[in-house]
Automatic annotation (TrEMBL):
Native species: Streptomyces cylindrosporus
Descriptive protein name: FAD/NAD(P)-binding protein
Source organism, top-level taxon: Bacteria
One Pfam family linked to the record: NAD_binding_1
Signal peptide residue numbers: none
InterPro entries: Cyt_c3_hydrogenase_gsu, FAD-bd_FR_type, FNR_nucleotide-bd, OxRdtase_FAD/NAD-bd, PyrK_electron_transfer, Riboflavin_synthase-like_b-brl
FAD-binding FR-type domain segment(s): 3-99
Length: 268
């Protein structure tokens, strides 16, 4: 990993939704070490600042890419980047998903909103080895149909079950409406033999992980990705503190067994 932003050029740009863009990068000169699915980079938009963004594609499969939702100054700067523009990227940082712990087991992936992006390279890694896993289930929730990312790609994936639900349907929406946890009842998995991967807004992570645990999925087999404000990403500034944990050091991916008491305290 490097603590200094390394110049990267935007080589492809895809608008995913009205406010979300996927940018693929190539190094201008020196390359960064390989990222693993679940890890994040600090991405620097020149003149605006730097934010943590997970990888939505890794160098080994498809090239380094980030999927960014515009919510403020820096993310907006990144979403406005064009092919040929240069940004600074440092990393890899943080803990990756651990698909090896799911080998031989059923897999349940639950994504909420932009939380789909960090899960995408994990899903690709799991689907690339169909013999290594039992039934793969992908459950996706979004605010509206227009907020769904990579719909065509999702539709092309061979899974035991893929479910999509939205909070607010549009007139031509024929799919499910409501919270993503309601899809768990239709997924194909034996809870004790299941490993789950969950990423999305914190209330969604809490509700989903609790429901998985209630159904019988071991709490140490539920991997969640936590979001905290980050500045250094190297364990020095304390911005990402969650209870006794520095999320940039022990996260963002942690077991629900470890995350639950910390997120419950914040709820009080
Ligand atoms: C490990 C990690 C991975 C991330 N991966 C992605 C990703 O793949 N794609 C993506 O679009 N975003 C991702 N984010 C969130 C992203 O970092 C924030 O959206 C960004 O920092 C906002 O900065 P800004 O300057 O654009 O907006 P700001 O003006 O800083 O913030 C705009 C709004 O977003 C809220 N906000 C800022 N940072 C966070 C945060 N970390 N968590 C929750 N709310 C926040 C602020 O409170 C404010 O309401 C990730 C965050 C972390 C910690
Ligand atoms: S972001 Fe600075 S300590 Fe984690």
């Amino acid at each position: 990993m490097t603590a200094v932003p390394v110049p990267h050029r935007v080589v492809a740009r895809r608008a995913e939704t009205a406010d979300t863009v996927t940018l693929r990068f190539e190094p201008v000169a020196a390359a960064l070490p390989e990222f693993l699915p679940g890890q994040f980079a600090m991405v620097h938009s020149f003149g605006r600042g730097e934010i943590p963004v997970s990888v939505s594609s890794v160098q080994a499969t498809g090239g380094l890419a980030h999927t960014v939702r515009s919510v403020g100054a820096v993310s907006d700067g990144l979403c406005s980047a064009r092919v040929g523009d240069v940004v600074g990227i440092r990393g890899p940082y943080g803990t990756p998903w651990e698909p090896e712990r799911a080998r031989g087991r059923d897999v349940v992936v639950v994504a909420g909103g932009i939380g789909f992006a960090p899960l995408r390279p994990l899903i690709l890694a799991v689907l690339a080895e169909p013999a290594a896993y039992r039934r793969v289930n992908i459950l996706i929730g979004a605010r509206t149909p227009g907020d769904l990312i990579a719909r065509a790609e999702v539709a092309s994936w061979a899974t035991a079950y893929t479910g999509i639900t939205v909070d607010q349907p549009e007139v031509d929406w024929r799919g499910d409406v409501g919270v993503v946890t309601q899809l768990l009842g239709r997924a194909h998995f034996e809870p004790e033999e299941t490993t789950a991967f969950v990423c999305g807004p914190e209330p969604m992570i809490r509700a989903t992980s609790r429901e998985l645990a209630h159904l019988g999925v071991p709490r140490d087999q539920v991997q969640v990705s936590l979001e905290r404000n980050m500045r250094c990403a190297t364990g020095h500034c304390g911005h990402c503190q969650l209870g006794p944990l520095l999320v940039c050091q022990v996260g963002p991916v942690v077991d629900w067994e470890r995350a639950e008491p910390l997120l419950s305290v914040r709820e009080l």
